[in-house]
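Hi X.,

You mentioned you wanted examples for the new student's onboarding notes, showing what a folding record looks like when two proteins sit in one file. Here is a clean example. The first protein comes first, with its sequence line followed by its structure tokens.
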Amino acid sequence: MSTSSSTFDFAKVRAAGFPIYSLCRDQKRKELLELLQYDHTSVINGEHVKQTMHAQGLVWHYHPHAWSIQCGNMKTPSKIFGDDSLLRRALNNRKKMGKCKTESDLRKAVSIYSGTQRVSNFRASAAAAIHDRYLPDSGGAVWDMSAGFGGRLLGALACGKVTKYIGTDPATLTMDGLREMRDDLVPMMRLAGYVPPEVELHHIGSEDFHPDPESLSLCFTSPPYGSHERYSDEPTQSYLRFPTNEEWLHGYMRMTLDNCWTGLKQNGILAVNIAGVKSYPALDKDFVALAVSSGWQFLETLQLSLSNGPGKGKRKSEPACAQSGESTSVKRVTHKYEPIYVFVKGSRQILSIPN
């Protein structure tokens, strides 16, 4: 859709349909090469993991269904777009901010409307940096237990230390997108002179996937946050199989951790991006306690920088879904962070819980 005028025209916006990312082959190649050529080792500074926009359009191209995924009880961007009254209000709010010229502005208009949340994607450059930090110099295989929208898959492609990427996810549309990413981007890398890792994808939940014993060097993911993120209504979804917070933690999450333990080599690394949410405020604390009580040796906590937003101060734990409120005034931009908890596979010795 072209939006070359200074303001959105409602009729044209409605006629054009939702402004999903739609990249041609040359655009895909350009975004992929920019990521491959970027020095991702600069992304981590101390405990902080910064986020860049490298290949964001590329990952969203393969997952147009993401705009309709429910986060808690919030509205989705596609719902805002599909309701004439809500869309008009969203466009008017965006016009008051003075930003209403591009498809990007339109996507933001329906994403930041009051009471709306959209799902986020792990930034590919951050994923590449984390792969590089925790894999041995000789390289190794990685299991992404909740592969999601492909940010960590792209990060694996961009990190020369990854010899094999294994991704599991039970959502059918999401897995379709991941397979299309693999089939497009791996050959594209080869044509550009790069050596991609082997990519293995499984349409299954992490609680049911059993990797080969001691075949992995790193298990790295951001899991669904209990019932907060509802990626589909298929019965394989963890929030349906394990409907209460306790069942989800001690069923889904414990089974996933056990499978990680089996698959990881001795002294292999487990890295999990997880935070408390409204429906489960103690999620991250309970997860850490579960991991430590299961014998995982705590190593460190990284702080993952999320997208900037208006506010009054730093917040070190935010939901994985990108939440914003309707606003027409300019406020001081703040940084939001989520923790990435890092553990080592040791000898099943029960250790103290980190502060």
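Then the second protein repeats the pattern, sequence line and then tokens:
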Amino acid sequence: NAGEVDTQGAEIAFNYYVTNNWLVDFNYSFFDFEVQSAQLGDRLLPNAPENKFNLGVGYRSPKFDAKVTYRWVEEFDWAAGIFVGTVPQYEVVNLSGNYKVNERFGLGVDISNLLDDEHYEAFGGDLLARRALAFVTVNW
């Protein structure tokens, strides 16, 4: 894409430590743009939503930590090559957890899209479903 675009936006984030073990976090992002000039036939889009936010709750102790997050993304238009259309609003819940077996080994799990809300985040992109990853960490 070639042209001139004015953009503006803002982000805000809060972390609140309920106790030494519990954390609540929140962030919000606003993005806006205005096309000043574009080549004939070209559609300039940021391929990003105007509004989105995340909310999370986490727990951490010396042996165990876990976090659940909620992400909301507003519907937005997309244009990249032959892929032109709308990315519908979507919501995703993620879960992660780690357990420290000892000083050397740990076990963990990351589950993206816990509620299995099939959606896409880029027009023409992959249809995303639940994805779970279990792992072992080794420290030396």
